[in-house]
Design goal:
The relative contact order is 0.10. Helix 2 links the parallel strand 3 and strand 4. It is built from 13 helices and 12 strands. The protein is an alpha/beta fold.
């Protein structure tokens, strides 16, 4: 089992990562002094696959777990589901010094995280991510949120877990499309910070998707290091953390332009990565060879580009509503090469437009 420590001002916490480490979870709870009464928030898919095994392991070690199951999918990440969870937590009498375990993908991590940040003004949280996206991204960094009908992730807080526990063997049951979505963020880490990640995906993508324990462990571990190092340096979303938005300005525009249908977040981000790298290429910040590698890697992941549905104007309008915008200039990190980024504050809409046109023709 590997361990990455996130060093924050107020306290540090570990991320445990390994293949088939499920059984170690209760012992870690004991060593982190987690009280016996715990609530497990999970979704219908994860519970049908793993909940019994999880409950048994906890009970065997003296824990008293209380499962709360919500419907799988983004539509559960809202205030009415949170309200139902609060009601259950009150009924089971979860106390302030007790713990909520978020057992699922990013939806559960964000929802259960939001509930634990707010219930009784904050209870302990353990993140047990079960998707690639959640293991490399959403479980790390303390951002928790629910959606509002007018926008995603608009209601939230920062709430760090006691620890994060990533058993990567659970990814064996993840649908291929979800794996690829997670890989979108992993490719991003390869470009913004750790070129080795990029090279592993270039050489071993089949092994990752299979999944092969050694290769997967390496990329999840390296990704956790990249994300936690950036979070450590900039806890509250100031300029440095913006590097994590690479691919996301255009990616969010595409997602929103398609009304969050057709393309999943990770797929839209991959298109965004190509688009934003294209801006870098046109500015002479990266060479043609590096750009080709980025483009080819993303195309090789087989993301389907719904050409007919990509309405450029709509995408641009959505990017116009981006909170990072100042007049007609956008702030953004652009790649200088694999593993190296530059902050720029003058990206014009015309450049974004050209990038979107390029994506059209992929
Ligand atoms: N807080 C952050 O910093 C942050 C960062 C990125 C994304 N997010 C959020 O994360 C969410 C997306 O997360 P996601 O992609 O994990 O989606 P998800 O939680 O909906 O999981 C995807 C699907 O996989 C299923 N699933 C989960 N684990 C499984 C397993 N081991 N085997 C089989 N099926 C499994 C789920 O039931 C769901 O159907 C979004 O709401 C996004 O806003 C948050
Ligand atoms: Zn993302």
């Amino acid at each position: 089992m590997r361990k990455v420590v996130v060093n924050l001002r107020e306290r540090n916490y570990p991320i445990y990562i390994g293949w088939e480490i499920f059984e170690k979870f209760p012992k870690l709870c004991l060593s982190h002094k987690i009280k016996p009464h715990v609530a497990i928030i999970t979704d219908t898919n994860v519970s049908s696959l793993y909940l019994d095994k999880f409950l048994n392991a906890l009970i065997k070690n003296g824990y008293k777990p209380e499962p709360i199951i919500v419907r799988s999918g983004e539509s559960s990440k809202n205030l009415s589901t949170a309200m139902k969870i609060y009601t259950q937590l009150i009924k089971i009498n979860l106390r302030r010094d007790e713990t909520i375990i978020a057992f699922g993908g990013g939806v559960i991590g964000d929802l259960a995280g939001f509930v634990s940040a707010t219930f009784l003004r904050g209870v302990n949280l353990i993140q047990f991510p079960t998707t690639l996206l959640a293991q490399v991204d959403s479980s790390i960094g303390g951002k928790v949120a629910i959606n509002h009908p007018l926008g995603k992730n608009l209601i939230g807080s920062f709430h760090h877990p006691v620890f994060v526990f990533s058993d990567i063997s659970l990814l064996s049951s993840l649908p291929k499309r979800e794996m690829i979505c997670g890989l979108g963020e992993v490719v991003k880490y390869g470009i913004i910070k750790d070129r080795k990640i990029f090279e592993i995906i270039e050489n071993d993508v089949e092994k990752i998707l299979k999944p092969n324990p050694d290769v997967l462990l390496e990329i999840v571990h390296r990704s956790a290091i990249v994300k936690s190092e950036i979070v450590e340096k900039d806890e509250k979303e100031k300029r440095l953390r913006m590097v994590l938005n690479f691919g996301h300005t255009i990616g969010h525009g595409i997602e929103a332009g398609l009304n969050y249908r057709k393309l999943k977040h990770g797929e839209a981000v991959m298109l965004g990565i190509v688009g934003e790298s294209f801006i870098s290429l046109r500015r002479g910040l990266i060479d043609g060879k590096t750009f080709e590698r980025i483009k080819n890697l993303i195309c090789s992941l087989g993301v389907k580009f719904p050409k007919k549905l990509l309405d450029k104007e709509k995408i641009l309008t959505h990017i116009g509503y981006d909170k990072k915008i100042f007049s007609d200039r956008l702030n953004m990190y652009l790649p200088l090469g694999l593993g190296k980024m530059k902050f720029v504050d003058d990206v014009k809409f015309a450049e974004i437009e050209k990038a979107i046109e390029f994506i059209y023709d992929l």
